[in-house]
Amino acid sequence: MLRRILFCFILILCSLQMNLMAQGGLWAHMHGSIGSGAMGQYGTLGVANANNTPSGRYQGAFWTDKQGNFWMFGGFGPWGYYNDLWKLDPITVQWTWIKGPQTITDQNGEFGIKGVPSPLNYPSARTFGPNCWTDNNGDLWMYGGHGFDVNGTQGGLQDLWRYNIANNEWTWMGGSNVANIAPVHGTIGVASPTNNPGAREECKSAWVDDNNNLWMFGGQDGATANVSSNVRNDMWKYNISTGEWTWMKGASTMNSNGSYGTKGVEAPTNNPPARFTYTRWKGKDKNFYVFAGGNSATSRNDVWRYNINTNNWTWISGASQQNNAGNYTAQCQPEELHYPSARMENQTVATSTCTEIFWSFGGFKTVGNPLSYNDLWLYNLTTNKWTWVSGSQATNINPNPGPIGVAQPGRYIGSKGGVAIWTDAQNNLWIFGGLAHDSTLPPPAGQTLALGLKNDLWRFQPDSTCFDASFFSTLALEYPGDSTFCPGDTTSIPVPVNPAITIDPNTDWQYNTDSSRIIFSPTTTTTYTVYGAESGLCVGRDTISFTIVVEPFPIAAFTASPLVSLKTEPLITLTNTSQFAASYEWYFNNLVFATSTDATYNGTDSGEYCFTLIAYNNFGCSDTAVHCVNKLEPDNIFVPSVFSHNDDTKNDVFRIIGSNITLKTFVIYDRWGEEVFSTKNLKEGWDGTFKGKKAEVGTYYYYIEYDSFKGKKTLKGDINLVR
Question: What is the value of pTM for the model shown?
Answer without folding.
Answer: 0.67
